[in-house]
Amino acid sequence: MFRGEALPVRLFRRRFLAILGGAVTLGAGLGALKVFELGGREVEELKVEDERTILPQPRMKGGLSVEKTIERRRSRREYVDEPVLLGDISQLCWAAQGITDANRELRAAPSAGALYPLELFVVVGKSDLEAGVYHYLPKGHMLERVKAGDYREQLREASLGQEWVGRGALDFVITAVYDRTMGKYGERGRDRYVPMEAGHVAENIYLQAESLGVGTVTIGAFVDDQVRAVISAPPQHTPLYVMPVGHVR
Asked: How far is CA 177 from the centre of its chain?
């Protein structure tokens, strides 16, 4: 089930999160919450419905310079069987589509007319976050769970059997809702502006992954309808990229 808009986060929850320095999973209907420390260790867990996980706040200073990260950037397809933890997932989501100007709700990657036609899904397999398909909500820096379970193998099959899609600890899927951009820019929006934006987002993921010491690669060979089914996205979503992420050999 896909829910496109984040619920408001109450002030006391924000203060609670700030004190913990961690991530909170909200039960939209029940008000229940699951608390993680920044390293991903679970402190408290309650059964919730319509789970939304408030991610740890992204770090604004990394260990590598921009120049060194660009120099090291490579497509990496060989991964070891280790989890990618919640803090790194948070950082990657922020680099891809995170809000960097709260007043104007501008994001980390440029978008024609600030229309933001792209959506980010995370197919989580091996992490301290429960396996499942998640949809990133930039407003509130949250992940909402679309469905539970490890769907990496199904995504690999949808990606023409490319084994690294199944071997990554998780996979990002970038989709486009073309109408958001075409309403202002017409066919040029679909043919030029949206693909350009997807490239910006993918490169941000590449560079952030390199900075974090994990690897990724862009995948464009897949069956659109099958990928859409794996992530349970609505029909107006067109998958543009699959990007596995994992610790490299």
From this structure: 16
The number of CA neighbours under 13 Å toward the Cβ of 25 is 22
Token representation of residue 224? 């659109």
- pLDDT tens-digit profile of 207-238? 999 999 999 999 999 999 999 999 999 999 99
Q: How far is C-alpha 187 from the chain's CA centre?
A: 27
> What CA–CA distances, in Å, run from 172 to 37, 202, 227?
23, 10, 11
CA-to-CA distance for 231 and 8, rounded, in angstroms?
24
Backbone angles phi, psi at 223, to 5 degrees: -95, 115
Are the CB atoms for 144 and 52 separated by under 8 Å?
yes
User: Token pair for residue 29?
Assistant: 């209907």
Neighbours of 18 (CB within 10 A): 10
- The residues spanned by each domain of the chain are 60-246
Distance of CA 231 to the CA centre of its chain: 12
Looking at residue 51, its pLDDT comes to 84
Q: For 60-246, which CATH superfamily applies? A: NADH Oxidase (3.40.109.10)
Residue 88 carries which side chain, given as an amino acid letter? Answer: D
Query: Rounded to 5, what percent of the chain is helix, strand, coil?
Result: 35, 25, 40
H/E run at residue 137: strand 132-137
